[in-house]
Structure formats: C-alpha cells, structure tokens
Amino acid sequence: MLIVMKPGAAAQETDAVVNVIQKIGLRPHPMPGATRTAIGITGNQGSIDGRRFENLPGVAEVIRVTKPYKLITLDLRPEKTVVRVGNATIGGNELAMIAGPCAIESHDQAFAVAEAVQKSGARFFRGGVWKPRTSPYAFQGLGEKGWEIMTEIRKAFRLNIVTEALEESHVDLIEQYGDVIQIGARNMQNFSLLRRAGRSQLPVLLKRGMAATLEEWLLAAEYIMAEGNYNVILCERGVRTFTQHTRNTLDLASVPAIRRISHLPVIVDPSHGTGSAYMVTPLARAGVAVGADGLMVEVHNHPELALSDAAQALTPSQYAQLVGEVRAIHEVTTPIANESRLETKVA
Length: 347
Ligand code: PEP
Ligand code: MN
What we know:
Blueprint: E1 2-5, H1 11-23, E2 27-32, E3 37-42, H2 51-54, E4 59-63, E5 83-85, E6 88-90, E7 96-100, H3 107-119, E8 124-126, H4 144-157, E9 160-164, H5 168-177, E10 180-183, H6 191-198, E11 204-207, H7 214-226, E12 232-236, H8 254-261, E13 266-268, H9 277-289, E14 294-298, H10 316-346
Parallel strand pairs: 7-8, 7-14, 8-9, 9-10, 10-11, 11-12, 12-13, 13-14
Antiparallel strand pairs: 1-3, 1-4, 2-3, 5-6
C-alpha cells in the first residue's frame, strides 16, 4: 500500500497519516519528493484495507501495490535518489568514481593507490579489509589491521571509505570510521546482514549476486530499505553465464532496466564484470554511456604483485586515462539521458 499526499499537504497532515499507520501496527516510510510526499507501508503479511486513509486531510490517493517491491519503486519516489556521502554524491549530476585495490595488503600499497586515485579525481576509496574468497587457502584480507590502514587513509586523504562487510560485526566497525558499507555479490541474499545494514545510518552499496535476477536484486535492496535505510546504491558487477572470455558477463542492460523501475542510483563495476584489465576501460565507457551513476574500479600500484584479482587491476596511469575518457562520455550523455527521462514521463 502506498499513500500519496497532495502537493502542498501540510507536514502535520503527513504526520497524522504516519500516526495511523503506526497505530495499526505497521511501519510507515515517508518519502518527500520534489512535488509531493508518498508514504510506503511495510510490515503487513496480507492486504491492508486502504479505505481508512482516503478521507484523511491531505491524502491525494491510496494505491494498492501489486509489484513485489514497495520502497524501491518510482511509484513511491518519482525522482532519482541522490545519496550524499561527505562532500560527494551518488545519483546526482556528478559521476561517482570509486577506486582502489581489491584488497588492502599493506600500508605502503594502500597509501600509494589512494594517492594515485585521488589525484585522478576519485572521491571514494574502495579496498577489501575482509575478503570473501572462494578458497579458504586464498588471502582473506588483513582484517582489523587493514581496517586501521583504511581509517588512516580516510584521515590523510579525506577520501570516503568503501569497504565490504562480510558479517554483522563488520558493520559495527565500519559505522565507527567508514563511509559506505559494501555488501558483496556472495552476500546479496544474506538476509540478516541486509537487515543489519538497513539499521545503519551509513549508505549501503549493494552488489548484484552472481546469479541474481533483477527482481531478486531489487528485493535485496527492499530488505535494507524496509529497515529504514533509504540510502542504497545498486552495483552491477556481472552475472555468471557460459562465456569463457570474461570472468562474468557484465549485464549493462540492467542499468536502463532498473531506471524504469527504481529511483535508486546504479553504478557499474567493470573490474569484476570482466576479470581482465584490458577490458575494464572499454566496459567502463559503455557503463557510463548506458547511464550509470558511477563506476567502481580496481587499481593497484603493482598489479603483477596483487594478492587478489591481479589480472583485473588497472595501474594508476591506466586508471587516470579511464577517468578522462568516462568523464567526457558522461558530459555528452547526461543531457541526453535527462531528456529521454523527460520524454518517458510525458508519454
Ligand atoms: C569486491 O568488490 O571486492 C568483490 C568481492 O566483488 P563481488 O562481491 O562483486 O565479487
Ligand atoms: Mn576484487
């Protein structure tokens, strides 16, 4: 159920609706928009009798939700969500660049990469502190030592720190010194982790599971939002197919497909999406051209020595070149994208 308030409805009128929702034991999710506020309702198992809301002052419309999702949809918020992180945004006019090594390996490695990506204009520094590895014998990340290095980088470079939480206790730590909680492909349906991230004040970068449909991915985002955290960024990182020329098949069609359904920002990860450094820049260009709000790119100061994902890491100079190219594409495509959004609305 979705309650749309009249444009110009008073704050007290919205509060009164919120009150009724709480009194009947359900959870209201008010989403103020450019022209009107809509209130999503969660917590009900079956259908709700929406007629009780129809005559409340300020209510324009009560809409029964027939789709599987309630909070990620454009019905609830017709404008795109802009996630604000410190001095940066994701989903606004700027192209969000999130760059850094696959894993934090040492103080020197992390500082060298952070310095390089910052020089090329990244506002976000990514780096795995806890690594989800297929093999138990592979490098698992430095853990808390790595987290200390991340927090030093945050201070030294004033970069926003993005790191993956593998379990709920990692969320506690990221909340103390981090900026964005990453939930990786392997944990996209770790429901207790999604719920924990949903109770955080920090934005959540939710990667697509390696065999997840769009609907499953969006429902994972619903888990986070249903707990009250509306700052979710979706990250397309490829899905497993029969191809052998790439690590994953980067499904760039998911970007416009999500745009049709959801107000959430979407970024593209061409590193895990291809698995090979030589393909990262071409797919990054394509990601921006299809309308991604940002990119997440793995960079290493010595890719040949990387402890994880060596084959897909760009050198700092390759990364600098990529940034120049994608910014140029973004400048051209943003006005086109805005125009086609307008046309879709008119039609
Ligand atoms: C990562 O970004 O470090 C990562 C492990 O990616 P994914 O979850 O997409 O495999
Ligand atoms: Mn990686």
